[in-house]
Amino acid sequence: MLLSKRISVLSESLTIAISSKAKEMKAAGLDVISFSAGEPDFDTPEVIKNAVKSALDNGCGKYTPVPGTPEVLEAIATKLKRDNNLNYKPNQIITNVGAKHSLFNLFSCIINHGDEVIIPSPYWVSYPEIVKYCGGTPVIVETSEDNKFKLTANQIKSAITPKTRAIVLNSPSNPCGGVYSKAELEEIGKVLEGSDILVISDEIYEKLTYNGEFIAAAAISDDMFKRTITINGLSKCGAMPGWRFGYMASSIDELNKAVRKLQSQSTSNISSIVQAGAIPALLGEADANIEYMKSKFIERRDYAVKAINDIENLSVVCPDGAFYLFINCKNVEPDSMKFCQELLEKALVATVPGVGFGMDGYFRVSFACDLDSLKRGIERIAEFVKNYKK
Ligand code: PMP
Ligand code: GLU
Asked: Which residues form the Aminotransferase class I/classII large domain (predicted)?
């Protein structure tokens, strides 16, 4: 066989596959409304673009150290302290080609064959796939609408086995928008005390928290700081998805050394140009743009939640963060793949089936698009649902 066994277990990213299909259909002249994109529709702020322009004029084209330039690592440490009350030193931080790459590096360095990783479902599509690729076993723990799709400390307790290596937390979450409160994180922290289980805290939607306060998992206690690997980036909150800027921070020096070693043999440093552009974003110089983007997301969320809940047989829990609605369509069509395929073919609305996030009977709508498209798309969904025949 030509291909490795490792690659054969990996599925293609469904979110990317559907977004690409919607783009192709649009390019072919079809009037598709895409709710599949996991990226802000806002342009990258000027201050960031200008930083790149001046970096280019000042000859920033050389290799940088593998984890990043001293300036970008310092800027990340400053951001983590200022926004999240986290005391990471610059040498405990590594920049990567997007947070997906941070997770890829991380799982590659911590998983041995058969190690278990607890992942709450609905989950972002890539977590279980990367774990499987690295030889691990994803242990999927189903959450429910009643708890805004958040994992409870008791659920974690029941899922832990001697093989548990790590737990993935994603707050605010993709696809449900759940935000963990301080009390919830404290309870999770207590369950883990005395174990050597790592917490992988994906905080990429951090600044898009609409209700309640965003709390970083590592900020909960000394014990949580020691066991948590903080993952973040600028794809969502800096409106820079195509730039590919992510990072991980951890107090575990042995792990950081391993990730640097792996990266030194794969991508080396991330683009020097991107690092230069990231600095003003990390230092808060684009905060006004982010606040504006956030206010628009709130407006769209409020509109869309009401409009969806007004459609007979569809319902949605209001997300507290991120820019997705995870919509219950069980009363229309429990097979989410079939529902989304027909919605795309017949009504020209692209959405992502819940089954890709580990929960059938739901579909994901991204409201990272203008309000007018959101209105027109939801009208099409309403019409489609009204006429749906099983
Ligand atoms: N985590 C979550 C929850 C996401 O939705 C995404 C979106 N792609 C990522 C990580 C990865 O982001 P990126 O690689 O663009 O930094
Ligand atoms: N995270 C985004 C999404 O869920 C972007 C695509 C991806 O990387 O999965 O749609």
From this structure: 31-381
